[in-house]
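Journal club prep, shared notes

We agreed each person brings one worked example of a sequence with its structure written out as tokens. Mine is C3H1-type domain-containing protein. I'm keeping it raw so we can talk through how to read the token line rather than staring at a rendered picture. Sequence first:
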Amino acid sequence: MAVSMEREVPVLRDNHSLSLVPCGHITANNVSNWWPRVMTCVRDSHFVAVDLELSGLGPRDRLNAKQIDDRYEGVVSAAKSRAVLSIGLAFFNFCDNDVNETTINTNSEINCDTNSSERTINSDNLNECLSDSVENVNKFEALLDPQLMAKLENESNGCVDSSDKQWKISAQVFNALCLCEEEYVCEPETMRFLAGHGFDFNGQCLHGLSYHRGNDFLTEYEDLTTPSLRNLIAEIIRHKLPIVLHNGFIDLIFLYQNFYSDLPQDLQTFIADLVELFPAGIFDTKYIADFHDRLNRSYLEYLFYERQRFNIERSMKGQISIDITFPSLSHHISSDIEFKDLSTKILSESDLIVDICYDYANHGWCKLNHTCSRSHNIDHILDQKKNRSKRMKKLIKNMKKKSEELRIESTSGGDNSSIESVNTKHSKQGVHRAGYDAFMTGYCFAFYIAINAKTRPNPSKPLCVKSLGISHIVNNIYLTGKDQSLRINASSFAKTSANHKNKIQRIRAAK
Ligand SMILES: [Zn+2]
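Then the structure, token by token:
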């Protein structure tokens, strides 16, 4: 690996990596700084997860029309009149477990920041683990699951050495603010929701990356290298990256119209275009959750935290699990990174009596939003039905005491100013970012691969659904209110659109 001349800043050294997820904030001011890094991600990743923040969706009856062709027409008209406010991109890369690099050169390839001896849970018993370092305390805080604890009680040596079963996965998360240069409709309900979740409308207007909808302008025709949203999507297409979305029907249509070209008239042509645009596959985590994992709830936040707990449980049992790491970033862009704690928290006894909101628990949405007096915290929701044993109660008490002591120690020294504090009742509802939604989507997909694939993805080769044995989940898009998915299959009678033919040729011909 080449040695960078730039100063390396260790952004993340925490073993329990999801407690500090970095997200690169891309604006018109810094896009040229980020561009080489993002291009490296496009080139070297196994897949990209995408999420869009939109200014509105148009009339709801059209979005949920019974006929899928009508639904398509409804979303097309929304994509031509509304705009993308921000785009979240999360790049994932399955790594070798024996990689020992600890920092990443921004001009070089992606590798995992790995120290397997520290990551493995291998103490002889829980008490020993509990009295260990801050990292272990954090880790075990997340492990206090009653069912799991009961299992551990039956095993003489509670923790399992599972280093070779822990798949190292490197993730890089970005959130780009977008500004459509054409007139577009902003729906009050959407604005209220986004403003209530801390969306920075001022920042979007002042520093958003400007773009126009529809076909390329002639001036853009041969320029595929200038940093722009359009060229970013073109690069993802050129490198044939698999794309992962959550409930992706609307996002795919908006992505096409806003950053690629004018949409085809009919759904069949759109599907034919998609087959060529993403030949390595389109994946939808809501489809996977509903049709394959058969989970009773499949909104993104629930899915992410539920999968995270399941992953911890598998790790403790020595089964294949995933371990996400975030490469360090060089100094000149580190000021444009924000952090968020996305780790699951097993709550203390006093939190268990919290009244949870069942609207939110069932649908991931509540009309009262921030004014709701009941808890929307997913950890409360996930904890609601679990009974706690005496041993659990004792452990929680010890853990609480220990983590409080350690918190005092760690905050008395060092600078933690960039770390978002998460100790409120609505802790999971902090600032809403398309980048973090993209990350959660990618996490769920990576976890699905870890527990279902026949083999481990080859670190140096593209993701191959066939050799992984996951062909049954590829190219199925979730359709709200339907018991069947939308299949993205090239049919013998549907032709691709003229706009697409023209553009894809230029993209594929680029160096
Ligand atoms: Zn509520």
